[in-house]
Amino acid sequence: MTTVVTIETSTAVAPSRGPRGLVWVMLRVHRWALWFWVLLVAVGAGALLFVHGPGTDAAWSEYRAMGCDSPEVGQACDYSGPAISRLGLANSLGGLLNFVPLLAAAWAGGALIGRELENGTAQLAWAQSVSPARWLAAKLAVPAALLVAGTTLLTLLHRLAWSSAAPLRSIVPWREWYDDDIFLANGTLATAHALLGLAVGALAGLLLRRALPALAAAAVGLLVLTQALGSLRPYLWPVETLTQKGMYPPYTGMVLDDGALTSTGARVEDPLCINDTKCLADHDIVGFYRDYHPSSHFWPLQLVETGIVLAVVALAVLAAFRLLRRRTGAAV
């Protein structure tokens, strides 16, 4: 007698393992941009670590060997040795942080938003139980997290390299703390500008819905915004004033204005007659003034400008969501 054994098999499909959802899809679609960002951060970090350690040490040793370790060195002192050349190259690579906002704007406008709207892949995602609002939120949140992580790391390393090179800056012509690229890379502004680039790019992509026009508009829009914000920087915090009789006070810090002072304390245009007693008396000039920001104003200026940039970021993101809602209606 044969016994028939029936084995019941479940028709349920076992859930697939591994990452799923919008985040995973986005990382997979834009994996080349992700790898480029990882490579950029790695190169910048390596260059800044070199500046912080062996690069600065080798350059300092080279200067000391040439007798150039004094502020009163002569014209014959050579500052073009191989060690300082390598240090300058590494410092330039470390300055890649300054190009991140422009790269983020161009990528967000062209590939992240503009291309997907142009090719119809965004509309396909919206038809598959992904609302436009969730789609845009993922498009902004994932790159924002990666940008914050990468720029924060590079900013910390840039500050480390900047502080380690302080002895060299005292004897060799070097960029000052208030120069645009140094000011951006040494504080919170680097991360804020990267987020600004992302937000401006996303808004440009939603407005134009075509990759190349959105890429160009995002890049131009970001440059205009950053130039406008940078022009406000000297006026975001009260300046300090130095005065001196007979000649100008020392030239120090971020200078905003200087000129001559009359006996009544009024500020007038410099008559250009320093050391000419009669000329100074004829113009009633008793001294000179100079308005400036000392290095102690770095963080007040940095934080105030960061707050303004983040406010612009919030407005751009809000405008992007409202524009998407207007174009997609109740689906958002």
Automatic annotation (TrEMBL):
It comes from the Bacteria. The chain crosses the membrane at residues 32-51, 95-114, 135-162, 182-208, 215-236, 298-321. Keywords: Membrane, Transmembrane, Transmembrane helix. This is ABC transporter permease. It comes from Streptomyces cyaneochromogenes. The lineage of its organism: Bacteria, Bacillati, Actinomycetota, Actinomycetes, Kitasatosporales.
